[in-house]
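TL;DR need structure tokens for one chain.
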Amino acid sequence: MREQVFTHSSWAEHRRGSYERLEFLGDSVLGLAIAGATHERFPEHNEGQLAKLRAHVVSRQSCAQVGLRLGLGAELAARGSSLPAEELERLSANRNVLAALLEAVLGALYVAFGFEAIRDAIVAAFEDQLEYAVNSHVDFKTELQEELARLGRQVSYTVVSIEGPPHLREFTCAALIDGEEYGVGEGSSKKEAEQAAARGALGRLRAD
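>> reply
TL;DR here they are.
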């Protein structure tokens, strides 16, 4: 099956002998693993927020980044000796190809070992993408502002503390709703700490 994972359709004898069928399967495996992880980690998120997180984490760009880090493009190039060197170099660095390879690997692992055996490893491989989606890609401050506007309430942010040397600052910020502290968050910048505080405030607001 490893041979199929690293067989591009351009040199496969038959298209079904390329990685495309495993890619199809791996796409669903990845989606389920990340959906399960986000559902478990973020109980305060509604369906729409969870969908946004999953969409970012399983995007072609994210898959390509993980595929590149795992060296999948290089292995593809090593197996495509029938193509010109320039073509192999282009394919091995192509974002869509890298993403497809990553999904094909996941499809093959699923066939070989089953979902439960590989779920945690999948989530671990995408940990950076998940962390980015939570702290940067999703704008919790805007979501909190919009939700409070519907309730006729207001939010403000205050810096609770700043610690560490200038090159390693750690900020702690609080989100105050109508003057009451609803969430506290930390981050390496004021913006990041405010986002974390807004996330906490959203969780409490929805639990009230």
